[in-house]
From TrEMBL:
<keyword id="KW-0808">Transferase</keyword>
<keyword id="KW-0812">Transmembrane</keyword>
<protein>
    <submittedName>
        <fullName>UDP-glucuronosyltransferase 1A1</fullName>
    </submittedName>
</protein>
<dbReference type="GO" id="GO:0016020">
    <property type="term" value="C:membrane"/>
</dbReference>
<dbReference type="Pfam" id="PF00201">
    <property type="entry name" value="UDPGT"/>
</dbReference>
<dbReference type="GO" id="GO:0008194">
    <property type="term" value="F:UDP-glycosyltransferase activity"/>
</dbReference>
<keyword id="KW-1133">Transmembrane helix</keyword>
<comment type="similarity">
    <text>Belongs to the UDP-glycosyltransferase family.</text>
</comment>
<keyword id="KW-0328">Glycosyltransferase</keyword>
<keyword id="KW-0472">Membrane</keyword>
<dbReference type="InterPro" id="IPR050271">
    <property type="entry name" value="UDP-glycosyltransferase"/>
</dbReference>
<dbReference type="InterPro" id="IPR002213">
    <property type="entry name" value="UDP_glucos_trans"/>
</dbReference>
Length: 133
């Protein structure tokens, strides 16, 4: 985190780390879903609903497999889906992205940073979620 590396190198390393972590989470989800004994045990337990974090789709997929309603417990959905779902405008010129640490009073360079974060979110979301498609 504190190393001063070139921007492009940091982007490539972040991409590789996200891709590796996503593959690990997908593998864990696949192992859960194909574990017939565990899935049968969950189905027989008679749960009324499933509480899950929508950041990763494994929870909703398991809930769908078990025919359970889903209750999300995150204050925002990943990839800006909360803004798309509610059709709330979120112009990057004055609405800071969550991870930018900017306030709503941004300098020009902070606005550029905010825009780069917004663009990279779409790319990283595709990397994380495309295997579930």
């Amino acid at each position: 985190v504190f190393e001063k590396k070139p921007f492009l190198q940091r982007v490539v390393e972040t991409y590789k780390r996200v891709k590796k972590d996503s593959a690990l989470l997908l593998s864990a989800c696949s192992h859960l879903l194909y574990n017939k004994e565990l899935m049968a045990s969950l189905a027989e337990s008679g749960f009324d609903a499933m509480l899950t974090d929508p950041f990763l789709p494994c929870g909703p997929i398991v809930a769908l497999r078990l025919a359970l309603p889903v209750v999300f417990f995150l204050n925002s959905l990943p990839c800006g889906l909360d803004f798309q779902g509610t059709r709330c405008p979120s112009p990057p010129s004055y609405v800071p992205r969550v991870l930018s640490l900017n306030s709503d009073h941004m300098t020009f360079l902070q606005r550029v940073k905010n825009m780069l974060i917004l663009v990279s979110e779409g790319f990283l979301c595709n990397v994380v979620y495309s295997p579930y498609g």
